[in-house]
């Protein structure tokens, strides 16, 4: 893959909010999860786990934490979870990197899914207590984000991408307003 291929992949990934019910083939799901597990993490602590929910009844229950039909009717939901106690903490200020590590893993997952023609959508606006209870998360684990995973349905036409002009986000040498 060259840079143009990577840019095309980054362009192709977008938030999908309508899914076909067809299941994600097991080998593709495995590869997408492997891509997530290849993410870098601070001090290589890999403080994550990926909870895969395919059972329709369990998905419906998980929908109590984020009640959008397109979320819980997608054939699979993946929750990226982290255990902050096992993540690296920066000694200068005590900043724990668990959520950074989990976010990178999720980003690998979403890009790998896009490469496989699958749709994803970061979900952060869920009720964490309800989701943790449905997933039976042990103490010390937190859900960074969830995503539905499945083939986009035809009605999920990609919306026009809106991003701030690149120049607005690049700071050279030192901060300037
Ligand atoms: C941390 C995070 C949390 C998000 N939470 C939600 C969410 O709860 N529900 C939702 O529909 N989209 C959610 N999104 C998707 C964003 O709305 C979306 O990424 C953004 O509008 C850009 O669109 P794009 O993903 O199609 O490029 C979230 C994205 C991120 C990165």
What does this structure look like?
The protein has a domain at 35-153: NADH Oxidase (3-Layer(aba) Sandwich), CATH 3.40.109. 35% of the residues lie in helices and 14% in strands. The chain contains 7 helices and 4 strands; from the N terminus they run H-H-E-H-H-E-H-E-H-E-H. It has helices at 3-12, 26-37, 56-62, 69-72, 98-115, 128-134, 166-169, and strands spanning 48-53, 76-82, 119-120, 142-150. The protein has a 4-stranded antiparallel β-sheet with strand order 1-2-4-3, with helices on both faces. The longest helix is centred in the middle third of the chain and has 18 residues, at 98-115. 29% of the residues are buried. Flavin mononucleotide binds at residues 14-15, 121-125, 145. Flavin mononucleotide is lined by residues 14-15, 121-125, 145.
- The CATH architecture of the domain at 35-153 would be 3-Layer(aba) Sandwich
Q: Which term fits the overall shape?
A: globular
Secondary-structure element order, as H and E? HHEHHEHEHEH
Radius of gyration: 17 Å
**What profile does the largest beta sheet have?**
4 strands, antiparallel
From the N-terminal CA to the C-terminal CA, the straight-line distance is 36 Å
Number of helices: 7
Look at the structure and give the CATH class of the domain at 35-153: Alpha Beta
Strand content: 5-15%
Going by CATH, what is the homologous superfamily of the domain at 35-153? Answer: NADH Oxidase
Q: Which cofactor or ligand species appear?
A: flavin mononucleotide
Strand order of the largest sheet: 1-2-4-3
Mean pLDDT across all amino acids: 96
CATH topology type of the domain at 35-153: NADH Oxidase
Structural class: alpha+beta
In total, how many beta strands? Answer: 4
Helix content: 25-40%
Unreliable segments of 5+ consecutive residues: none
């Amino acid at each position: 893959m060259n840079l143009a291929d990577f840019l095309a992949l980054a362009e192709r990934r977008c938030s999908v909010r309508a899914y076909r019910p067809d299941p994600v083939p097991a080998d593709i799901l495995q590869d997408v999860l492997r891509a997530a597990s290849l993410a870098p993490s601070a001090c290589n602590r890999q403080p994550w786990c990926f909870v895969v929910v395919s059972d329709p009844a369990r998905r419906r229950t998980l929908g109590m934490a984020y009640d959008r039909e397109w979320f819980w009717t997608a054939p699979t939901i993946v929750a990226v979870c982290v255990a902050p106690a096992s993540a690296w903490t920066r000694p200068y200020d005590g900043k724990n990197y668990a959520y950074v590590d989990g976010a990178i893993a999720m980003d690998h997952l979403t890009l790998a899914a896009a490469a496989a023609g699958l749709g994803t959508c970061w979900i952060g606006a869920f009720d964490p207590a309800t989701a943790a209870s449905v997933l039976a998360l042990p103490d010390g684990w937190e859900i960074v984000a969830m995503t539905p995973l499945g083939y986009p349905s035809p009605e999920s036409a990609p919306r026009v991408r809106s991003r701030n002009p690149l120049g607005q986000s690049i700071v050279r040498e030192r901060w300037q307003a």
